[in-house]
Design goal:
CATH topology of the largest domain: Glucose Permease (Domain IIA)
Number of strands: 11
Largest sheet: 9 strands, antiparallel
CATH superfamily of the largest domain: Glucose Permease (Domain IIA)
Order of helices and strands: HHHHEEEEEEEEEEEH
Structural class: alpha+beta
Number of domains: 2
Length: 245
């Protein structure tokens, strides 16, 4: 696995938290399962025809043919879903990863929660969430703890998603990186898209929105490298611990 490659989380965002269709839902408001179902419809007919012929020639009971066809369809859905999900992600080479971490360290980012030790971030990026790596860090804190902007920059997107709940995507001033804050209890009053924030501004409050455990308020923070198209939902994540340690 290359540096920065997270497989399928998608939860993640926990936020995207371990479900296969998280990124597609958050990215464009559509489920990758829907895309997968379309693919299955295209591939299902030849599968049915093959089994129909086989059943007829070997006198296989119709129930067996239907069962086998259903199993084949399920496998197709799983494979297609994975392909659809990972196709939205950028990946970094080792050199690109190291360069990104170096640039981020030079920005002297603020830790978004007051008093939170970077050592508590260690390992969170690589933890499994469902079928893939977390690709972010979870920062536990009491509900309604203020969340601060890690740097100056524009609020690129305010988004309410099934997995991340109440979320914020913020760009740095040069739009090289996107910072993703998820599972918020609420936004700061008056927060809006395209608003320019300053390092340390309160942008939201820790909560359990989305698929966060209801009794475990925390901030899900991811730091990612944007592509040339600046798609906030399809950036390449780097380990926040490596940036802050």
């Amino acid at each position: 696995m290359r540096y920065g490659e997270i497989g399928i989380e998608i939860g993640v965002s926990p936020s995207r938290c371990g479900t296969v269709d998280g990124i597609a839902n958050e990215a464009e408001g559509t489920s990758s399962v829907v895309t997968a179902s379309t693919t299955v419809m295209e591939t299902q007919r030849p599968t049915i025809l093959i089994w129909a012929c086989l059943a007829a020639s070997l006198a296989v009971p119709q129930a067996l043919a239907s069962s086998a066809s259903a199993a084949t369809t399920t496998k197709t859905i799983t494979t297609t879903t994975i392909k659809t999900t990972t196709s939205t992600q950028l990946h970094l080479s080792k050199d690109e990863w190291n360069s990104a971490v170096k640039q981020l360290r030079q920005m002297h980012l603020q830790i978004p929660l007051d008093g939170f030790s970077p050592e508590k971030m260690k390992g969170s990026f690589y933890e499994m969430r469902g079928t893939g790596m977390h690709g972010a860090t979870d920062m536990l804190a009491p509900r309604n703890t203020p969340v601060h902007a890690v740097c100056d920059g524009m609020i690129a997107k305010l988004f309410h998603s099934r997995f991340g709940g109440t979320t914020i995507y913020q760009f740095d001033p040069q739009q090289r990186f996107v910072f993703y804050y998820a599972h918020l209890q609420k936004y700061a009053d008056g927060l809006k898209e395209k608003q320019i924030m300053h390092k340390g501004d309160v942008i939201g409050f820790v909560g359990t929105s989305g698929n966060a455990p209801p009794n475990t308020p925390h901030l899900h923070l991811s730091i990612s490298v944007l592509g040339k198209d600046k798609r906030w939902w399809a950036a390449a994540p780097v380990d926040p611990y490596e940036v802050y340690r």
